[in-house]
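step=encode ok
step=design start
structure_in=
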């Protein structure tokens, strides 16, 4: 793993930290490759039961594409005609977003500062966002004559509604933490000094929870957004059968009857 992305697994929690604070955690190629590999590892590792996505520094969660590197890549494309620069969407952004959104375990994003462009997209791909009161969000794409990527055209309308999503994409602006909470982008807003502790506590609680049920909840919500009621009810039946046959369900029922706190195994 590159130094630009830190990866640690402890007690079922994978913590992924963007680590370019001097560049506001902008996404150069090295960082994108490392982040893609980290989120894929976390998503597929059975020892990982929850993921915390965060960033080093105080100014930024992630400001999106590293435009200094991007300028050089565009110039090289013009000279060679290769047209490789924008392949980063397919090679990096798409796999990162899919791994976060489709991971069979909960993903928490701790947004410590500016989340712009793909940084905003990665935060939206998480299941729950805890946001510092000093943080902000910006779609940014139209400001550099680009369209949405990093899943924002899918996630943002589902969070804020299609009309508001169009507004935020066509007229990019900074969205403060309180407005982000009112729009549903932020699940919780906390003082900046408390962010890391609050986020870790939340993610660790999820890492000790009923992992099979959490995976089913994620799958059912995503399915229900794109399918009619009748098909969604069938999917709920399928997923409830899966959750109901898990060891954790038996543990939970027994603990409830015995008035004890369940100790889940994640299976």
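sequence_out=
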């Amino acid at each position: 793993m590159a130094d630009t992305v830190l990866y640690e697994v402890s007690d079922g929690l994978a913590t992924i930290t963007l680590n370019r604070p001097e560049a506001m955690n902008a996404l150069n190629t090295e960082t994108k490759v490392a982040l893609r590999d980290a989120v894929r590892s976390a998503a597929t590792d059975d020892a990982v039961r929850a993921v915390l996505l965060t960033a080093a520094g105080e100014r930024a969660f992630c400001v999106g594409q590293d435009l200094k590197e991007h300028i050089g890549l565009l110039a090289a494309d013009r000279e060679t005609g290769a047209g490789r620069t924008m392949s980063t969407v397919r090679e990096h952004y798409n796999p990162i977003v899919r791994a976060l959104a489709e991971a069979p375990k909960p993903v928490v994003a701790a947004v410590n500062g500016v989340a712009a462009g793909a940084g905003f997209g990665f935060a939206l791909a998480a299941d729950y966002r805890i946001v510092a009161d000093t943080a902000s969000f910006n779609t940014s794409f139209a400001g550099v004559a680009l369209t949405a990527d990093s899943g924002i055209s899918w996630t943002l309308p589902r969070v804020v509604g299609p009309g508001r999503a169009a507004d935020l994409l066509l007229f990019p602006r900074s969205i403060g933490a309180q407005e982000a909470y009112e729009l549903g982008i932020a699940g919780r807003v906390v003082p900046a000094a408390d962010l890391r502790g609050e986020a870790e506590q939340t993610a660790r609680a999820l890492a000790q929870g009923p992992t099979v049920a959490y995976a089913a909840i994620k799958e059912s919500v995503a399915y229900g957004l794109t399918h009619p009621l009748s098909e969604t009810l069938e999917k709920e039946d399928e997923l409830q059968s899966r959750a109901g046959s898990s060891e954790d369900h038996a543990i939970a029922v027994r603990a409830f009857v015995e008035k004890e706190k369940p100790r889940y195994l994640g299976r």
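step=design ok
step=annotate ok -> The beta strands are 5-10, 13-18, 50-55, 60-62, 107-111, 114-116, 128-132, 136-138, 175-176, 188-190.
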